Model the fold of this input.
Amino acid sequence: MSNPSTNDPVSELAGLLRGRRTVVLTGAGCSTESGIPDYRGEGSRERAKNPMQWRSFRDDAVLRRRYWARAFVGWERFGRARPNEAHLALAELESRGAVRGIITQNVDRLHRAAGSKKVVELHGALAEVRCLGCGAFEDRDSVQRRLAEKNPGWLASTAELAPDGDAELGQDFERFVIVACQRCGGVIRPNVVFFGEGVPRPILESAWAVFDEADVLLVVGSSLAVFSGFRFVKKAASRAMPVGIVNRGETRGDPSARVLVDGRAGHVLPRLLTLLE
Ligand SMILES: [Zn+2]
Done:
């Protein structure tokens, strides 16, 4: 161990984080080992073929019906996903005071399930639904129960899960019955940022507040293809704030990184935790 940095990037990463206040940016790769697929593929920077656009959801009742039909099936698995070793290691690092907060691009709420306290959900959370009319919130589980009542037998279809809790159906989604806001009868939406929407300003301000408390940025499981996450790497670079990246495959932030670890989050982070003890 005279010079671990020459051989072991995880040791090098531990050296980068040791004694510093860390802000963590997480993406889909942090949750793949919880059974939630990364729609960009491991290391790939390609977009999903046809992600739901916000304007389509808002303006097209047919697409909205299809969205909910797929989400209804997808939630059965997505809603039961459990934190993996990466989430648990990050929660432990926060409890030790090393991690000051997590900014996540994930909508699965698994950081909170793992015990992390300061979590900014850049893209919202699928666990919440809100009304486009009156703004009322409803738990996704509650919406799921209402959808199940209206669509008995629907879940019998098998489904391939897509990353936003969406799923491919072998069924005729036009028969699917959607539900409305319980308070005003308005159109409901998942409380997530669709493609074509921006991150809400208050959320972004919370993220910058966490970022500003730290003096090193650790990226976990993101190819940084989307600007909502990449902006933090750009800001770090502009401040000469060191950046460490744990990801399978290359990322858009690689040129700005002091340390790169090519590996699975669920494998790398427990090792990192041990090295930082
Ligand atoms: Zn409403």
Observations:
- The longest strand covers residues 124-131.
- Residues 17 and 216 are 7 Å apart (CA to CA).
